[in-house]
Design a protein that fits this description.
The complex is a heterodimer of chains A (134) and B (148). Chain A is built from five helices and five strands; from the N terminus they run βαβαβαβαβα. With 134 residues, chain A is α/β, with parallel strands linked by helices. Chain A has a five-stranded parallel beta sheet, with helices on both faces. The two termini of chain A are 23 Å apart. Chain B is α+β, with helices and mostly antiparallel strands and 148 residues long. Chain B has a single domain, classed as CheC-like (Chemotaxis protein chec, 3-Layer(aba) Sandwich). In chain B, a hairpin with a 2-residue loop joins strand 7 and strand 8. The chains are: A alpha/beta (134), B alpha+beta (148).
Chain lengths: 134, 148
């Protein structure tokens, strides 16, 4: 951190982004964490449903969120709306098995910035994240 | 009752899952209809369907197959909980992908998982199920689709 409290960024001078991963599958959370290749993304936490995500979001203030949609307690669509209300600048990548266009449109209208269908390759994940970070 | 094109939707979603997520294609056997409760393997991921169609979709697989799938996914946790997680995720992914053709009115639940000896999958009495046999490496699994 610099003297005025701002993050110093990565060793090559890129800005750091705090990442939160939200998915009810442990396997999927680990997969996303393991497969993303951006040194400027610093994982601040993971959550298994929208309610946990909301609480974690308030504590960790992430800049980037990957969000599943079908989850217990609170689904991803509702969670997206809540997160965007808390922090309009948050960048949200939906990662979901729901492959219908209407769902993708709804997620984007709620405030998501990108949509990636499951199953996905590492390359597809990283391309989607790269678009998000632009 | 499942129409031919709808069956193809599930077959395609299954094929796609194994090719992409499990990184090795599966071969899909000839789907067939069955009355009563199809037999299940050691782990079963179940998705309840509601909306325009009602019923269940479930993926059932043996532990040995799930173990190899996890290895291919670069997982090193082969616990009971991880097996349950995987079958649920497979069922969820295939069902969710089916919405591409079934539309948003094909409402899918979060997955529930059964494991152990001879668990009972909740099926609608009197409704027939389509069984989609899945062969992956030397293992066999099933996708079962039972819809109104």
């Amino acid at each position: 951190m610099t003297a005025n409290g701002k993050p110093t960024g990565t060793p090559n001078g890129k800005k750091s982004f705090k990442l939160m991963i939200v998915d009810d599958s442990n396997i999927m959370r680990r997969r996303i964490e393991r497969s993303q290749q951006f040194e400027e993304l610093q994982l601040v936490g993971t959550a298994g449903n929208g309610l946990e995500a909301l609480e974690l979001f308030k504590k960790t203030d992430p800049d980037v969120v990957t969000m599943d949609l079908t989850m217990p307690q609170m689904d991803g669509i509702e969670c997206i709306g809540r997160l965007v209300t808390l922090k309009p600048a948050v960048r949200i990548l939906v990662i979901s098995a729901l492959a219908d266009k209407a769902t993708a449109v709804e997620a984007m209208e709620k405030g998501a910035n990108g949509f990636l269908n499951k199953p996905f390759t590492d390359r597809q994940l990283n391309e989607a994240i790269a678009e998000l970070l632009c | 009752m499942l129409y031919e094109q709808e069956l193809k939707t599930f077959v395609d979603a299954t094929t796609n899952f194994f090719s992409v997520a499990a990184q090795e294609p599966a071969s899909i056997g000839s789907p067939y209809l069955m009355e009563g409760s199809p037999s299940v393997h050691e782990y079963t991921g179940i998705i309840s369907i509601s909306g325009k169609r009602e019923g269940v979709v479930y993926f059932t697989a043996p532990k040995a197959m799930l173990t190899v799938m996890l290895m291919k996914m670069q997982e090193n946790d082969f616990s009971h909980e991880t097996m349950r997680d995987l079958v649920g995720e497979v069922a969820n992914t295939i069902s969710g992908n089916a919405r591409r053709d079934f539309s948003r009115e094909f409402v899918i639940s979060v997955p529930s998982v059964l494991s152990g000896e001879k668990p009972d999958v909740p099926l609608h009495a009197g409704r027939r199920s389509f069984i989609i046999p899945i062969n992956w490496r030397s293992h066999s699994a099933k996708l079962v689709v039972s819809l109104s």
